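Thread: Newbie trying to understand structure tokens

Hi all, I'm a second-year student working on a class project, and my supervisor (Dr. K.) asked me to get a predicted structure for one chain before our next meeting. I've only ever worked with sequences, so writing a 3D structure as a token string is new to me. If someone could post the tokens and maybe explain what I'm looking at, I'd be very grateful. Here's the chain:
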Amino acid sequence: MSVNKAALADHPAAETQTASAGVVPAPPGAVEISSSAAPGAGSLAGDLLELSKMRVNLLALVTVFAGFALGLRTSTGGSLASLLSSQNGWLLLHVLVGSFVLAAAASMLNQYMERAPDALMERTAARPLAAGRFPAALARTLGILLSLLGLAYLFVLVNPVCAAVSAVTAGVYVFFYTPLKRITSFSLLVGAFAGALPPVIGLTAATGELLPAGWSIFTIQFIWQIPHFLAIAWIYREDYARAGFPMLTVVDREGKATALQVVGWSLALVPASLMPAAVFGFAAGFYFWMALGTSSLFLAFAVSFAIKRTSERARRLVIASVIYLPALFIALVLGA
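---
Reply by user tm_fold:
Sure, no problem. This is what the structure looks like when written as tokens:
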């Protein structure tokens, strides 16, 4: 996934790049593949929703919930029915609220840092900061304040371990992934690390500790993000090239390296999906076959894209990916 900057400079669509360009505008795990703004964009409420990346972060909350439910199922004497208890219900609500506040804050800071290159892309030019509708200084202040509020909320109302994992997630995303996007396509791996932590946040909220089960679902989500994001990057490769983003899909004009990465990581997702059943033994039977089936289907879409690298097949892979992940986690929770 190394980047050939000479090839980037020679790309026909890179003529409009500026010195400030060089970042990838969407984080790994993002599911937005449309340039349209959120409903209500242009109003203050609509701009705040757009800054919080509501649609993207809702999927992250699904994985937080899955991690929380899994933590209850795998804890001593725990059961899924315990979700209905008042104590666990409030705890779940607190971790979801705190996680969303922190994710929204990180999204605001990310868009603040990327507002100049975002303005160069059709897909992101309508965002509040890129379009100049929302004051950049206010977005930065809101991002910082909401980050502190979200972390304090999780620390006090959930537990310190959950707050610590959440701090690592936001910190890696804002302070490492975002600036690295200006330098190398390897930033995708850094972003995937941060993007794989939400289910671990949910699990630590339920258990108060880091369990082996947490690293199994971390591994699944880490691997899943790479073919998912590369498919999105392939769809918008010309748009990214216009802004000078050093991405594999930009410099790999024929798409052979991109296809190899997509198939390779999708293939790795098959054993990773089976890891909870095969290694930890808490999700045998139903989950094993569900994981094998869904990951094999995901691999089939990846191979289809590799054979014929069109935007339409990339879109199908994106759709398959956003169906696969929640389906797998639901099966994991039910089968644990």
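A couple of things are worth pointing out once you decode it. The chain is about 70% helix and 0% strand. The CA atoms of residues 120 and 243 lie 6 Å apart. Feel free to ask follow-ups in this thread.
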